[in-house]
Specification:
heterodimer; A: alpha/beta; Aspartate Aminotransferase, domain 1; seven-stranded mixed β-sheet; 12 strands; B: alpha/beta; Aspartate Aminotransferase, domain 2; four-stranded antiparallel β-sheet; 13 strands; about 40% helix
Chain lengths: ~525, ~450
């Protein structure tokens, strides 16, 4: 297969090698394989699927789709090769440490994948008669019980599709509870260090977002928060452990103050993995918290989802939880939908999604939880915190840790760009790490730290893996401090050099368009599909 | 514990490096009374892979899998054959265990795949551009309604009564809190759609008209006139597609003038999965792209002039815009988008058209057979692979009696519209390429027996 790499060697180049001594005919470099788009190599007449029968004639009149659609097909052999080649241009947990802070890139156990594919789970329809899917309801119920017990909360809404969807669920519970009380509170307080989803969610639900001041130690300023509370404040959204990697020591006092002022406490549970099995948010006065099953409970991140964001709720918010949900009875499990909600759940704020949530993530998360058990989950939190502190302390004197004086971090270590050579930035360190064979840490988040670098190693890294990473980060950091010019153009060994993101946004190309054929240019079908 | 690599010696050495006496020291910022001493009581301890697999397999066996016998359910989730290579490829660790491509130099695999996915979706739906996916069809539908409000600066959305009731429920839930006004209702048992009436209801406050195609009762219709009516009134036409395979046979909404087309992509590549995870499709005309929710992948070049792909137009998004973002969505449905894209690549246009024709033919065969049963008739005057049967009695008990005979015979309108007695005799039946002629005969025989 000829890869259509515009940067590759072309016949019109005069000397072998052209401008670059490493140029090859294909643009490939041994195992580093270029891959064209399906639109360049496929053909609308090709299919990789055989059917047992010819297409019967249809009589749909004017509704028949007669114009070309333009969807290229490939044989199965070509398809497997195309996507396998693409996959090799990705970094992944399976390849190495992936210290993306706040995203919790831990090992994804393969038993979870096997279980999710059992036909009883993978090949069941959400609207099957309830008596034919009791095992599926049992999974939802068993996972719900674990989440309730691990968080010390009253109940859980299972249907939210991802973390941000869970945030919306919690915020709508708060809004419904306030409405039930006949109160029109309009303000949600959110610290500046919060994930962007927090203010976006609160605004989406019609709230005004105001900032909560932080202390110099990187935590919520309790006194400032107390001073702001009042009859217009619906609640707070606080991430705990927070995005600086610190536990909010005053969480209980914060909750008490918010409750005393008539508000509710939403906890962003993105970092629950740091405390699972060791701390229960219910003991800290939390009213609602989403749990990213794809973080704490290791359902695969899949290149950007799917996630799953069940929301645990306090007794005060439980009556407002969304539909549907599963209940257990003597005769078996029952799904509470719109039909019986009037009797069983009259105050629900409604439905957030079609069907019942991310079943495929529930089976994986429950498998993960049962594998670890209560003792293993506690060990998960402890090893995650141990690994992060090991990174934090091992880089002392190399990178500036703005909150090092605030005591141990939780599951992630935060550094700033202080002390880098003139003209060198966090971005350069990130790109340098790529050449060292690592995915960079989260960069420029949280916003409260200049040039932030948020490192979350997770508990599934060995000491040897951490030592190598620390060595690599130290080396790259020293290059940035010493002003190594080669670092400015890193990465040098990745499938691509730095990409022009400004150009991409200025003149967006968001879909394939057939290039206008220049005279003498071979047609697409001549180039590809062979 | 098989997933945790640290040994006790490692832990001791690391604590020494940190300068902590014990793990507990690392939790010093957690107030003592909030710390748990040991593992939470009454919860099981860790278990072997064998034991966990045994437990989960026992639960799986308590479900009747769709493939265990005749199966006719649809109503927003469709059972299609997914080629084996799809599941193999999405389990490549480089896809499965990567995340949102924040570092494009080492995420070109995901990014190029997303660019291809966006291009495939735009072409399938007949629009200019598509995003990198949403959670599912129902949330995509709501996001489209909000997007129409942003574009038109109007707040009233007209929902066709043929919109999936769950999609309508999601919109109603959200609208309660955002102040959007929704005009909606249950479908009536008519052979055709309510689109002509919808066109007449558009006024100067209407932000959008939302129609499903094929709709919840399986009906299909031409939306050209409705699109023109929307355009004349300054409103947007939003089309919802819950069965994208249909678009291999019937005109795409974009071709007929829809401004925003959203859909549920589950039926291509993803599988039933008891309702999720699925993949929301979101597409629109180019002029609205800056009002779109969700991630967008765009083409660019690297420092050496090589073509590459990046996430782009992120100034719409929550991580940049925070409370002013077009949506709060962050994680979407990347792996399901990959499954969709691989399956679509395997099919190609030729395969998609053949698959769609086979579905339609199989549905016609089933409709003909089922309508022969005394007292049973087909409501629709047009359909793709799903139609509504009118039974001489309430459909819900019939479904349970069919299940006792090991036949999953469709979705009753009583389940979807429990409060509406007028619809109680309706049964929505989906017939895909996975249904055999023997399945249809068995269904017809059992239905006849149950109704006798």
């Amino acid at each position: 297969m000829t890869a259509l790499n515009p940067g590759g060697w072309r016949p019109e180049m005069t000397a072998a090698g052209g401008a670059d001594d490493n140029t090859t005919f294909t643009g490939n470099r041994a195992l580093m394989l270029e891959e064209a788009l399906i639109f360049e190599i496929g053909s609308t007449a090709t299919t990789g699927v055989d059917f047992d029968e010819a297409a019967p004639a249809a009589d749909l009149g004017a509704l028949a789709r007669t114009a070309p659609i333009g969807l290229p097909g490939l044989s199965e052999a070509e398809t497997v090769r195309h996507y396998t080649r693409l996959s090799r241009q990705n970094y992944a947990i399976d390849l190495g440490l992936f210290p993306l802070g706040s995203c919790t890139m831990k090992h994804n156990p393969r038993l979870n994948e096997k279980v999710a594919r059992m036909p009883g789970f993978a090949d069941a329809h959400p609207l099957q008669p309830q008596e034919t899917v009791q095992g599926a309801y049992a999974v939802i119920h068993e996972l719900a019980e674990w989440l309730i017990t691990l968080t010390g909360m009253h109940s859980v809404a299972m249907s939210p599709k991802a973390g941000a969807h869970g945030e919306l669920c919690g915020i709508l519970c708060i809004k419904a509870a306030l409405e039930a009380r006949g109160e029109d509170r309009r303000v949600i307080l959110v610290p500046e260090s919060a994930h962007g989803t927090n203010p976006a969610t609160a605004a989406f639900a019609g709230f005004t977002v105001e900032d909560i001041p932080a202390t110099e130690a990187g935590r919520v300023n309790l006194e400032a928060l107390k001073a702001r509370l009042g009859p217009d404040v619906a609640g707070v959204m606080i991430t705990n452990p927070n995005t600086c990697g610190l536990f909010e020591r005053d969480m209980k006092a914060i909750s008490d103050a918010v409750h005393a002022a008539g508000g509710y406490v939403y906890c962003d549970g993105a970092n629950f993995n740091a405390i699972v099995g060791r701390v229960r948010p219910g003991d800290l006065g939390v009213d609602a918290m989403h749990i990213n099953l794809h973080k704490t409970f290791s359902t695969p991140h899949g290149g950007g989802g799917p996630g799953s964001g069940p929301v645990v709720l306090s007794e005060a918010l439980a009556p407002f939880a969304p539909l549907p949900f599963v209940t257990k009875h003597a005769e078996g499990f029952r799904l509470i939908e719109e039909e019986s909600a009037g009797e069983d759940h009259p105050q629900t704020f409604g439905r957030m999604t079609a069907f019942h949530g991310q079943m495929g993530m529930f089976t994986r998360a429950l498998t993960y939880i049962l594998s670890h058990g209560a003792d293993g989950l506690k060990q998960v939190a402890e090893d995650a915190v141990l690994n992060a502190n090991y990174v934090l302390r091992s880089l002392e004197g190399v990178l500036d840790a703005p909150f090092a004086a605030s005591g141990p971090c939780m599951h992630e270590a935060l550094f700033s760009d202080k002390g880098l050579a003139e003209g060198f930035s966090t971005l350069d360190i990130a790109k340098g790490l790529i050449d060292e064979g690592y995915h960079p840490m989260t960069v420029y988040f949280p916003l409260v730290v200049h040039g932030a670098m948020l490192v979350e190693p997770t508990e599934t890294e060995s000491k040897a893996a951490l030592d190598q990473f620390i060595g690599a980060l130290r080396s790259v950091a020293m290059r940035a401090k010493n002003g190594d010019p080669a670092l400015k153009s890193a990465p040098h060994f990745a499938p691509r050099a730095r990409l022009d993101e400004t150009g991409a946004a200025r003149k967006p190309i968001l879909a394939w368009n057939e290039p206008a054929a220049a005279p003498g240019t071979p047609s697409l079908s001549e180039i590809g599909g062979s | 514990m098989r997933y945790l690599p640290l040994t006790s010696d490692d832990r001791s050495a690391m604590l020494a490096t940190i300068g902590a006496a014990s793990i507990d020291d690392l939790f010093a910022n957690v107030p003592v009374d909030a710390r748990l001493d040991g593992p939470i009581a009454d919860l099981p301890r860790h278990a072997s892979e064998l034991a966990v697999e045994r437990h989960m397999a026992a639960l799986a066996r308590q479900n009747r899998a769709a493939g265990d016998g005749p199966f006719f359910l649809g109503a927003g989730a469709y059972r299609h054959h997914v080629p084996a290579s799809v599941d193999h490829l999405i389990q490549r660790g480089e896809f499965l265990t990567a995340y949102t491509p924040y570092q494009p130099e080492i995420a070109q695999g995901t990014l190029q795949m997303l660019f291809e996915f966006q291009s495939q979706v735009a072409r399938l739906l007949g629009t200019d551009v598509a995003n990198a996916s949403m959670y599912d069809g129902s949330t995509a539908c709501w996001e489209a309604i909000v997007m129409a409000r942003r574009i038109t600066k109007r707040g009233k959305a007209l929902l066709s009564t043929g919109l999936h009731p769950h999609y309508r429920s999601v919109a109603r839930t959200m609208a309660k809190y955002t102040g959007d006004v929704l005009v909606d209702g249950d479908p009536s048992l008519e052979a055709g759609t309510d689109w002509a009436a919808l066109a007449d209801s558009i006024d100067k406050d209407t932000s959008c008209v939302v129609v499903q195609y094929p709709d919840i009762l399986g009906r299909i219709d031409d939306m050209t006139a409705l699109a023109a009516a929307c355009q004349a009134a300054g409103a947007l036409l939003i089309a919802v597609v819950t069965e994208p395979v249909a678009l291999g046979l019937i005109k795409a909404p974009g071709e007929m003038g829809a401004d925003i087309v959203v859909g549920e992509g589950q039926s291509i590549g993803v599988g039933l999965q008891f309702g999720g995870p699925y993949v929301g499709l979101f597409a629109c005309k180019t002029k609205y792209v800056r009002q779109m929710p969700g991630r967008l992948c765009g083409e660019t070049v690297d420092a050496n002039g090589k073509r590459g792909f990046v996430l782009t137009l992120s100034t719409r998004e929550q991580h940049i815009r925070r409370e002013k973002a077009t949506s709060n969505i962050c994680t979407n449905s990347g792996l399901c988008a990959l499954a969709f894209s691989i399956h679509m690549t395997l099919l190609g246009e030729a395969g998609l058209r053949q698959l769609a024709a086979i579905n339609h033919g199989r549905a016609k065969m089933a409709a003909t057979e089922l309508a022969k049963i005394p007292g049973v008739s087909v409501l629709n005057n047009s359909y793709f692979n799903e139609f509504t049967l009118l039974l001489p009695t309430e459909a819900r008990p019939v479904i349970h009696k069919l299940a006792e005979r090991d036949i999953l015979g469709g979705v009753s309108l009583g389940r979807l519209y429990p409060a509406n007695a007028n619809l109680a005799n309706g049964l929505v039946v989906a017939v895909t390429e996975t249904v055999t002629e023997a399945d249809i005969s068995a269904f017809a025989a059992a239905l006849k027996e149950v109704l006798a």
